[in-house]
């Protein structure tokens, strides 16, 4: 019973060891000798969770009999044979079982006609405290006359809270009740099916999933909801970018223009994937909604990705075309059809006599796919998550239901198109009838520009990852610009754990009347699926991810698909209206990701969480090697497979180091860091390129022949030894001095002087900082991606090389320009 209880209490640990005391009289002649022969020996038991309780009893009994054979062997000699065990924790616990004919209050028992007094392992200090040599004591007393079994648990107050010990006792009682009150339970069921859940915990779990809400809406698809908003308020501002703006009516007009082109000239049919590769612009919004209007499946491609990857992703979707605009026309090969949205809208002689009858003939149902978005894949190939119209609409209704955002909000678009959050920010805002504020490319990390937008556009809703939120709020606090945040009503954070320092900073800058939300959800459950309203006045070390949305269900299960109990880690399974339709063209991966629980489809997230006594979920960690870096979901296996495709590399391990860097350990003899970086730059997006490559001739391995990650050398992501070279005092050119100053602003504050030939990533740089650097260059030297792409700077990541690249520009005078991505004609103020 004790072994089975430990198996359940430790959340499935099946290799257990406890200390037991033996009488030590292993020879007959010792039986009559007076003295202390007791010896403590370890009893190790490896449980098979699929065995029944009765079979476990036989297994433990056989183990015990075999162990007793060696009871004469002193414990110290046993430990000497295992020098790797410096602190045998099984000696900190004690398990006692006493069976007797009678027992009185004086702790005396009768054995035959003789009376004995028990010598306790503990000394009583007060009514509630005792002194003991053991940290944890579980004692059973079996009264043979009364046929009663009593149990006592004593635990160290230094290690356990009193309420924790009480809960442990309740769980033991619940398990004993299952084992001994039902014959069927003890004989047939495997032990992993035994539950430690208490009745109040079962009630909390049931109430947590009591989320059914009806949202009355006769409309079925995203574009139908959008047209409904146009009919309600045609002259309301729909989207704005710097000096450009469109009302809902004007936006619908341009959406119809592009939709007709997609139907009549490119013959897009419902269900076809339409890829789109554009920078932040009005064209992005128009392209997304036009794709929905013609029944296409919107699939965003990041302009920051290398051309090799863009080509591979496009072919993976089998998309007949890729929508681009003026800044991305050169991204694709000539054999890929790439209509230019800007050209279509600016050059076409559009008028009010458009024939919209063909649009009304496009039939799209709510069960059809609205968009597909790529996430990192452990097999080396990105996975395309397919989300239905009904998934997205229900998720937006849930967010509006908790008032995370609503029709009166002015929403700033922060997320890159590689994040599914951008779909909520753009289409979700238009779906509920809000106003969308677009930022020019790089605007989210240009904090002066972002601050100006928040104040001048009176932004009320902001959603971004915690790391970026922390950096932005820090800048606001340092520059005493709290006033730029005065219009914020709702700040949402997701993609990474919400940190306590972020709460402290929010308190410090004093955002008045602003609700802070910690949201959680993988792309496979449609953007977000749980929410927690953060109480910034509470002193806490862990910010919950909260409770499930309306019409979602969250279940925490162990590896045997049995419900976990409070404060016990388990994998989070999510069911309900947001569960995705599957991975595009990968039924094998879909079948692994989706599981039926109680006749309902659930997505297995791979995230380990636990539930507190209030029914709030807390994210703990991943059960695999998937990570989040600056909010971006990354399968480390995808990076490893990319590197392993290089023939001279025989082994590779990629790890996340601190919160900002990826480190790649490579087993090779004849390839250098720069070659590895250039190869990754040609095949991976910037956020997946390791900051540091460490080459080894041979990896350390454990006794099983596997790579021992703990013995890999510690990386130095801010290599100060490099900065001590004589070159650091050499004179820089005027342009190099300007670049040097920018680097010092972006890189860690400990740097004071950077040599002109030092790699950006070798001194604390990472992908997010590099993108910030690139956009800083664009702002200061007035060029776009046509002139110099981010890839060129990545391939030549030193101050001197960047100066040489910038020298190729016609003029490098510092200028400030506004982003003009689309010359919108005079807006139409009528509805067709």
UniProtKB/TrEMBL annotation:
One of its GO terms (molecular function) is catalytic activity. Gene3D superfamilies: 3.30.300.30, 3.40.50.980, ACP-like, Luciferase, Domain 3, Nonribosomal peptide synthetase, condensation domain. This is Carrier domain-containing protein. Residues 730-810 form the Carrier domain. Keywords: Phosphopantetheine, Phosphoprotein. It comes from Adineta steineri. One of its GO terms (biological process) is amino acid activation for nonribosomal peptide biosynthetic process. It comes from the Eukaryota.
